[in-house]
Amino acid sequence: MSLKQKTLDLKKRMQGAIQGGGAKAIEKQTAMGKMTARERIIALLDPNSFQEYDLFVEHSAKDFDMDKKHLPGDGVITGTGNMNGYPVCVFAQDFTVAGGSLGFMHASKITKIMDHAMKLKIPLIGINDSGGARIQEGVNSLAGYGEIFFRNTIASGVIPQISVILGPCAGGAVYSPALTDFVFVVDKISKMFITGPEVIKTVLGEEISMEALGGARVQSEITGNAHFFAESEDECFEQIKKLASFIPWNNTKKAEPFPVKKPNTKLYKIDNIFPQESNQPYDIRNIIKSIVDDSDFFEVHELFAQNIVVGFARISGQTVGFVANQPLVLAGVLDVDSSDKAARFIRFCDAFNIPLVTLVDLPGYLPGVDQEHAGVIRHGAKVLYAYSEATVPKITLILRKAYGGGYIAMCSRHLRADFVFAWPTAEIAVMGPEGAANIIFRAEIAGAENPDETRKQKVKEYKKKFANPYVAAAYGFVDAVIDPLETRRFLIHAIEVSSHKEETRPFKKHGIPPF
Amino acid sequence: MENEKEHKEESEIEKPQFQNFLIDDDVYKTILSKKYLTRKKYEIKDPGKVVSFIPGTIIKVFVKEGQKVKIGEKLLVLEAMKMHNILLAPRNGKIFKIHVVAGNTVANKQLLVEIK
């Protein structure tokens, strides 16, 4: 055969392999409202940047007549490419080939690209669309999952890992996304669960739909397993690209700086957003938008535990991670879910050299039997742990209430915030005025001729004396009490002077966080 | 002009029904989340009420109504996840009521037997 003939033969082989499960299976995939694995990669990466590997990998199973079956690429596409001009490793399971089921060679392709990502020190993006383990391959498919989970864990905190759930992701398979940094889901397409509706019905007699059990909305709102919710696959890919613009390639780098843009202070005016009275709600996200570049705040976990807000923005062109109490929902209290959400985000930022800006306005922890029994002690401790452990620049701004344990937890000076600023409206105290007055002046109030009047008087006294930032400032727990309209200037300065911050912690194999 | 319009729209969205929320005697106006509103209310456990700890099928009942039982005595067998779980009397007393018979499928936390 001549070179030309051999090249033609190669092209023919490639053509065959690229078809995946064939026209019929592709038709089925499209009918479900889903893109094919290849279409997804092309939509996600920069044009013409995808380079595929292991196209000719074949499965190695022999039992159950598997040796007579040909599965193109063994149901997964792997390769490298560019996103926003920067390199990434990517894999996409192909549901059209044996339902995207994971066999030994399928897993080997994935682990190979994961090893590449670690060596090249670039982000890994995994698109999951699979019926689960390939039963015919038995323990080999379990081995495959295990190899993936191990690599996910080792890569954690070294390279950013992104999971995209674009189809079913069930059984053991869900643990790979769970081990990665960010999970993206799409409405009506993503389904995640450990045991599916059928098993639940036969074993337990409980009937539930896939959507209600582990659909995109459930995973985003209730469980918090998913960080980003999209209405369509295209929207999902845009979200991934946007996230990638905020984070560095690996843990030795900083996120790429962007040109500085001023916030839109006409639209987001602190005077208008921030209420006069201290018990009135407002949307903390509008405060963030009033101080960050281009008023562009990219929220993570938007639908989950909305009493805390976390996400990325830029200040003076640099990526920062925001953690902010949200007075709009549950008065911004810390609880089991919001602690989990915040702690995880703090650890991501710390691992990837992203400075943390904490906005504080919370009355404390959520009271309740359900919270105590759900382990609010253990979960709440995660926030303390994550903040204390973090060595990236930590800047804290107390806007209003910072009461009790909440004050300590929200990156106080005592957990080694580098800069603590407070607005003049800040109330840094051991608890709210009503509660404090009721305890401190209990006897006086009870013994008074007019207890109600005395209580009001005592609350007023307490408020005047303690519901301000100046007591904390007198001890140096607050570094500066600032004019709210100068917040951006103070933050820019703090970020700039912190850019070479070095802080170390004692050597250890690893800590024991309250998982 | 357009910005002002946007802002107006945004503040309209931001005006849902705020509720009072009490923390340490201070009242805050805020939105109560769905998860908070649908949280499980705490109930004091009645030691005489035997409930299923897992959904499954009752395959055998050892006791009869009116019968006296001692703590640790076998009450019934609940099959779940292919395991036969024997439920024992949590206290001494008389079987006041049995709510299931062999063959019944039961949900989690369903009342099975009452001892008085």
Explain what you see.
The complex is a heterodimer of chains A (515) and B (116). Chain A is 40% helix and 17% strand. With 515 residues, chain A is an alpha/beta fold. In chain A, strands 10, 11, 12, 13, 14, 15, 16 and 17 form an eight-stranded mixed sheet that branches. In chain A, strands 1-2-3-4-5-7-9 form a seven-stranded mixed sheet, with helices on both faces. By secondary structure, chain B is mostly beta strands. Chain B is built from two helices and ten strands; from the N terminus they run αββαββββββββ. Chain B has helices at residues 2-13, 34-37, and strands at residues 19-23, 26-30, 49-51, 56-61, 68-69, 74-80, 83-88, 93-98, 105-106, 111-115. Chain B starts with a helix and ends with a strand. The chains are: A alpha/beta (515), B mainly beta (116). Chain A binds chain B through residues 203-206, 221-222, 264, 266-267, 272, 279-281, 283, 286, 306-307, 327-333, 337, 363-364, 366-370, 373, 403, 431-436, 438, and chain B through 3, 6-7, 10, 14, 18, 21, 23-36, 39-40, 42, 54-56, 80-81, 105, 107-108.
Topology summary:
The complex is a heterodimer of chains A (515) and B (116).
Chain A: H1 3-18, H2 23-31, H3 37-44, E1 51-53, E2 76-83, E3 86-93, H4 104-120, E4 124-128, H5 139-155, E5 161-165, E6 168-170, H6 175-179, E7 182-186, E8 191-193, H7 197-204, H8 210-214, H9 216-223, E9 228-230, H10 233-246, H11 270-273, H12 284-291, E10 298-300, E11 308-315, E12 318-325, H13 336-351, E13 356-362, H14 369-373, H15 376-389, E14 394-403, H16 404-409, E15 419-422, E16 427-429, H17 433-440, H18 442-447, H19 451-466, H20 470-474, E17 480-481, H21 487-497
Parallel strand pairs in A: 3-4, 4-5, 5-7, 6-8, 7-9, 12-13, 13-14, 14-15, 14-16, 15-17
Antiparallel strand pairs in A: 1-2, 2-3, 10-11, 11-12
Helix pairs in contact in A: 4-5, 13-15, 17-19
Chain B: H1 2-13, E1 19-23, E2 26-30, H2 34-37, E3 49-51, E4 56-61, E5 68-69, E6 74-80, E7 83-88, E8 93-98, E9 105-106, E10 111-115
Antiparallel strand pairs in B: 1-2, 3-10, 4-6, 4-9, 5-8, 6-7, 8-10
